[in-house]
Each structure stands twice: as structure tokens, then as C-alpha cells.
Amino acid sequence: QVQLVESGGGLVQPGGSLRLSCAASGFTFSTYPMRWYRQAPGREREFIAFISSTGGSTNYADSVKGRFTISRDNTKNTVYLQMNSLKPEDTGVYHCYAGASWGPGTQVTVSS
What we know:
Layout: E1 3-7, E2 10-12, E3 18-25, E4 34-39, E5 46-51, E6 58-60, E7 68-73, E8 78-83, E9 92-98, E10 101-102, E11 106-110
Parallel strand pairs: 2-11
Antiparallel strand pairs: 1-3, 3-8, 4-5, 4-9, 5-6, 7-8, 9-10, 9-11
């Protein structure tokens, strides 16, 4: 079955950076587009970033465009989210998504 496990979250000061990873198993990773979502406290889960199966196409929410970069390594069955210039409003649980399955998420807290 599809398994997605996120890692790399933590506490960071405003303006800092984090790199999230999502390790995938149980499906042919290289044939699936991947997405990152986040859920802030008291808010609905929102789309953050998309990457096509080959990595040739990406798309971002306006709120993170120019600060976040999604990438993937199909040899490692892993998708990444590089987050720069972090803001307090980026705080939340970050989930990866593929094939109608969600990972459990990794907590990101941006605070001074």
C-alpha cells in the first residue's frame, strides 16, 4: 500500500530555512505527481506545491511562490520542499500527498 513519511520539520526563526523530505513506498513513485499541503492551527488544509512525475513541471500557491521550491529524486523515491525566507504564517503541519494517500505530516513552527 502507499506509504508516505515526511521529515525535516522543526522550529525556525523568521527568515530562516528548512528542507522537508517525503519518503514514498508501496507504489511506482516515478509515475506519480506529488504535492505538498499544509494545515495551520484552526484552518483547513491548503495546497502548497505540485511537481509532475518527471519533475519537469511545478506549481506553487501564491503565498509561497518565490520562497519555496519543490523537487524530487526518483532514484530515492523522495520528494523535497525547500523553504526559504520563512514567515510565522508558514507555521503548520506539512503533508505530502500522492495517489489519494496522505502522509502523517511534519510540524513546522516559525517563531522568534
